[in-house]
Specification:
single chain; 350 residues; alpha/beta; 7-stranded mixed β-sheet; 4-stranded antiparallel β-sheet; 12 helices; 13 strands; 36% helix
């Protein structure tokens, strides 16, 4: 039946998520998940009814958390659905383009290709910042520009002044989509305060990382109300299951936010521990990270990655040469990972 599928889909290489890649082990630090498993109460008295398209209590809870108006919030099945909604709403197939700046999150390109929307790339600079002069030369036909900050997999923040310059550069021509999936680990770096100043700014958020709810698949798009209204025209009728709303609202309650804040501090401490330990190893470069992961360059990353994999420590291979991305887990997971890496690097060749 493959011949019945669209040619684009037949030739598409799917995103290699952590679960698709697989692996077998006891320590999973490959998907930037939280090590915390929190408990929630689920009600079953409304499961016989469809959910609201946009549950009011969830929109208000996240609006309060993000310090925006409720009319500036759309909730969806993870931030990934937000990416697709933006492409469907703003890009004409086989005509318009998106632009993104590798190395960065791979779903921007795959979502565009799925809808027959062209992609343009302008690689980040050597410092992993936006190459604004080069971007400016590539804007013909571009409707969406994706900027990830903190960037995945590099972990660095994109300079705020560069984001503002990009917004000015694209005013009335394209939307700048700032992916803030990891911003809850460094909220002071958010661009959310720019929403009222720049009508072409869109921000993607998620509960998957700092809120320890990757399995819930609950994301948010923040934008001016006109953009939100357009996205509501293309979203599925019932995108947010009732239990998802119930759990998300609990996570965004005062007690839920206090718990998340405490757990984020714990992850910060574990990140600092892992960064310090890895940084002491010879010929190892640990890049500064602002999310719940670190990008680390090793002398022979392939051999080390395979050794870790075989030992049941599952990390994420990076497209950046000789680099491995390590999610920040519990202190025990970080200690065991560091100890094994140290042991491998200290082994002398036979």
């Amino acid at each position: 039946m493959a011949q019945l599928a669209r040619k684009t889909v037949r030739e598409l290489t799917p995103y290699q998520s952590a679960r698709r890649i697989g692996g077998s082990g006891d320590i999973w630090l490959n998907a930037n998940e939280s090590p915390f498993a929190n408990e929630y109460t689920i009600k079953c008295d409304r499961l016989n009814r469809y959910s609201s398209c946009q549950p009011e209590e969830l929109l208000q809870a996240y609006a309060d958390y993000a310090s925006v108006k409720k009319e500036q919030v759309l909730t969806s099945r993870g931030a990934d659905e937000g990416i697709e909604l933006l492409i469907r709403a703003f890009c004409e197939p086989n005509q318009d383009s998106i632009l993104y700046c590798p190395p960065t999150y791979g779903m921007y390109a795959i979502s565009a290709e799925t809808f027959d929307v062209q992609t343009k790339t302008v690689p980040l600079t050597a410092e992993w910042q936006l190459n604004l002069p080069e971007i400016e030369t590539c804007l013909d036909g571009v409707k969406l520009i994706f900027v990830c900050s903190p960037n995945n997999p590099t972990g660095n923040l994109i300079n705020r002044r560069d984001i503002e310059a990009l917004l000015d550069m694209t005013a009335g021509k394209a939307l700048v989509v700032v992916d803030e999936a990891y911003i809850d680990f460094c909220p002071e770096a958010s661009t959310v305060d720019l929403l009222d100043q720049y009508p072409n700014l869109v921000i993607l958020r998620t509960l998957s990382k700092a809120f320890a709810l990757a399995g819930l698949r609950c994301g948010f798009t923040l934008a001016n109300s006109e953009v939100i209204e357009l996205l509501l025209k293309v979203i599925a009728p019932y995108p947010v299951p009732v239990p998802v709303t119930d759990i998300a609202v609990q996570a965004l309650s005062p007690s839920g936010l206090a718990k998340t804040k405490f757990q984020v501090l714990d992850i910060h401490a574990n990140r600092a521990y892992l960064q310090a330990g890895l940084g002491m190893l010879p010929d190892v470069t640990v890049f500064d990270g602002y999310g719940n992961y670190l990008l680390v360059k090793f002398p022979n990353a392939d051999a080390l990655f395979n050794a870790l994999w075989e030992h049941g420590i599952i990390l994420r291979r990076s497209p950046i040469e000789n680099c491995i991305r390590i999610s920040i887990g519990s202190r025990d997971e970080c200690e065991k990972t560091l100890a094994f890496i140290r042991e491998q690097l200290e082994q002398k060749p036979a």
